[in-house]
């Protein structure tokens, strides 16, 4: 996959290196040459340009990338201007970092549905989100065990947890299921929230569009992602 990461501070540079380490092509962008020089040998490409400038931004292969992630953290104005331009040219997938609640509200008002919150979310979690089909989020308990949110695979739809036999066949536990639904924020813009169904049982039916919350060894969870 191909990614463009704009803003090479701590979060942006870590995300760029994680994605590169997963054998994806990454173009890192920053307006400070020292940050570009610091990472140029550790990712696919590193470019120094001012992302506020539409002409400079358009020199990047934005429409040929799987996702563009705006990780600018020091300058909210630059972040919003960059995001607005990317939104206007309709890049395939646009993700933007928020640095405050006001910043996040403005991004939501702009129609940005994927927002990074570095204070709450790690770069490795976003690397997994960007590259794994069906994967939504995870929380690492140890180096081997995680709690993971993932979409219900097509082969599991309309079956119960007992019928599938997650514990017996995959050696994992389904803690709960939920659905991602749209709600309106204070500005009337749509945002995605999670609606929990409660503790899962053997009789819980997995519906299309549901999200499973799974506990288990990472290798066993990976088998379900590949199922």
Q: What is the number of E strands?
A: 13
Tertiary shape: globular
CATH fold topology of the largest domain: Rossmann fold
Distance between the termini: 20 Å
User: Could you say how many structural domains there are in total?
Assistant: 2
Q: What pattern of helices and strands is seen along the backbone? A: EHEHEHEHEHEHEEEHHEEEEH
* CATH homology superfamily name of the largest domain: NAD(P)-binding Rossmann-like Domain
Strand order of the largest sheet: 3-2-1-4-5-6
Instruction: Extract low-pLDDT stretches.
Output: none
Q: CATH architecture of the largest domain, please?
A: 3-Layer(aba) Sandwich
Provide a descriptive summary of the structure in words.
The protein has 227 residues and is α/β, with parallel strands linked by helices. It folds into 2 domains: 2-130, NAD(P)-binding Rossmann-like Domain (Rossmann fold), CATH 3.40.50.720; 134-225, Alpha-Beta Plaits (2-Layer Sandwich). Helices cover 32% and strands 32% of the residues. It has 9 helices and 13 strands. It has helices at 10-21, 33-39, 54-57, 76-89, 101-109, 123-131, 161-164, 166-170, 218-225, and strands spanning 2-6, 25-30, 45-48, 67-70, 94-97, 115-116, 135-140, 145-151, 159-160, 172-184, 190-199, 205-206, 210-217. The strands form 3 sheets. A 6-stranded parallel beta sheet has the order 3-2-1-4-5-6, sandwiched between helices. Strands 7-8-13-10-11 form a 5-stranded antiparallel beta sheet. Helix 1 packs across helix 6 (123-131).
């Amino acid at each position: 996959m191909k990614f463009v990461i704009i803003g090479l501070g701590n979060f942006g540079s870590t995300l760029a290196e994680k994605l590169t380490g997963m054998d994806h092509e990454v173009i890192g962008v920053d307006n400070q040459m020292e940050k570009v020089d610091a990472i140029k040998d550790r990712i696919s490409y590193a470019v120094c340009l001012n992302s506020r400038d539409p002409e400079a931004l358009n020199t990047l292969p934005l429409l040929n990338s799987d996702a563009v992630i705006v990780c600018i953290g020091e300058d909210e104005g630059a972040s919003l201007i960059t995001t607005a331009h990317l939104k206007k040219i309709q890049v395939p997938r646009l993700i933007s970092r928020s640095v405050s609640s006001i910043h996040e509200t403005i991004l939501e008002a702009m129609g940005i549905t994927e927002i990074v919150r570095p204070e709450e979310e790690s770069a490795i979690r976003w690397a997994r989100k960007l590259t794994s089909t069906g994967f939504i989020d995870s929380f690492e308990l140890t180096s081997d065990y995680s709690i993971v949110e993932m979409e219900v695979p097509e082969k599991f739809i309309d079956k119960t947890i007992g019928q599938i036999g997650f514990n017996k066949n995959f050696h994992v536990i389904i803690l709960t299921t939920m659905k991602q639904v749209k709600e309106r924020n204070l500005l009337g813009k749509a945002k995605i929230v999670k609606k929990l169904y409660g503790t899962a049982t053997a009789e819980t039916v997995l519906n299309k569009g549901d999200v499973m919350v799974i506990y288990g060894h990472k290798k066993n969870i990976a088998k379900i992602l590949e199922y």
